[in-house]
From TrEMBL:
Protein name: Glycosyltransferase
Keyword terms: Membrane, Transmembrane, Transmembrane helix
Bilayer-crossing regions: 238-260, 272-292, 304-327
InterPro entries from the UniProt entry: Glyco_trans_2-like, Glycosyltransf_2, Nucleotide-diphossugar_trans
Domain Glycosyltransferase 2-like: from-to ranges: 4-168
Length: 346
């Protein structure tokens, strides 16, 4: 067995059905599928049974412990030479495994990963969120896609591959509930293993289905970045500060405009109009940039408009989580934490 696909699942049987269906269309067939039900109340057991004849599939159920530990649980039971870690909300194009196999035959890698995009069947909200998470005009550009440095890529758990013996040598994912995939990627490099981006091994990634859930996700991502910084001080790069800078800047501009509006009430209107109006110009210009780029990329003005909201949620949600964690951990000296424990997966 060359590949083992490991998928942790929490209350998402419909998503698992779509993922498994896409696995049946793969032109490369030498793989097994390991589904780990992470304490779900709405299980996918029956869904998995329905694919018994079409896939080499193995279903396991365990108490809830988070995605990292669930992946480790699946890895302990996997048989493949390589472990392919996927999220339950992805769908694979038919040539995915061919692309992975071709890359490994051309040049060996201890670990690898690929990028993601939005499928035509996704909702407009999902397409807008996908745009915000992958666009050059947000911080999405650092996650994958067309990169020049293909020999040093930090894969994410929605699309990650690793040799099984390397996975075991690193003891798999840590107990971090958020940012555990970045933590794992950092440990891969620190241990001296080779990790590459496979440009053609991409997936369709649904991500969150509404902006409220998306905010919770990126807020926790901002917290996770500070938690990672406390573990690996050299992991914090300038690009990771950009959402925080954007958040502080946007709030400062809005407050400045509010001050201008107050002064207009109690002083000369013409004198303070510029202070009320001018701070909105950078925000309007950025929104227009997002609208034009997303409308072009998605061939939809509606998605372009929704992408403005998605971009602000992505940047400011992450930025607020980052600031909160910096204050609590770096200033007040508190221990590692994350937010939305009871509602993150709903």
């Amino acid at each position: 067995m060359k590949y083992s696909v490991i998928v942790p699942v929490y209350n998402r049987p419909d998503e698992v059905d779509e993922l498994l269906e896409s696995l049946t269309t793969q032109t490369f067939k030498d793989f097994e599928v390991v589904i780990v039900e992470d304490g779900s109340t709405l299980t996918c057991k029956d869904i998995c049974k329905g694919y018994t004849g079409a896939l080499d599939i193995h279903y396991f159920s365990k108490d809830n412990s988070g995605p990292g530990k669930s992946r480790n649980y699946g890895a302990e039971r996997a048989k493949g030479e390589y472990l392919i870690i996927l999220d339950s909300d992805v769908v694979l194009p038919p040539e995915y495994f061919n692309a992975v196999n071709r890359e490994l035959e051309n040049e060996d890698a201890d670990a690898f990963g690929g990028s993601d995009s939005a499928h035509l069947s996704f909702t407009d909200t999902q397409k807008a969120i996908s745009y915000s998470m992958t666009s050059f005009f947000t911080t999405g550009g650092i996650r994958g896609g067309k990169k020049k440095k293909l020999d040093k890529f930090y894969p994410r758990s929605f699309n990650m591959g690793i040799k099984r013996d390397v996975y075991k040598a690193l003891n798999g994912f840590s107990e971090m509930r958020f940012g555990e995939d970045i933590d794992f990627s950092i440990r891969i490099f620190k241990a001296g293993y080779k990790c590459r981006l496979f440009p053609d091994a991409w997936v369709w990634h649904k991500r969150r289905t509404d902006f409220r859930k998306f905010f919770r996700q990126v807020y926790n991502s901002g917290i996770a970045r500070i938690n990672l910084y406390k573990k690996y001080p050299d992991s914090l790069k300038l690009v990771h500060l950009l959402p925080m800078v954007f958040t502080v800047g946007a709030i400062a501009l809005i407050l400045t405009s509010a001050v201008g509006r107050i002064l207009m009430e109690y002083d000369d209107i013409d004198k303070w109009y510029w202070l009320c109006a001018a701070p909105w110009l950078p925000l309007i210009a950025y929104s227009l940039l997002i609208f034009i780029d997303s409308s072009r990329a998605n061939k939809s003005m509606r998605i372009g408009i929704m992408s403005i909201g998605a971009a602000f949620v992505q940047l400011m949600g992450y930025g607020c989580g980052f600031i909160s964690a910096w204050w609590k951990r770096c200033v007040l000296g508190q221990n590692e934490f994350h937010a939305f424990d009871k509602t993150f997966y709903k």
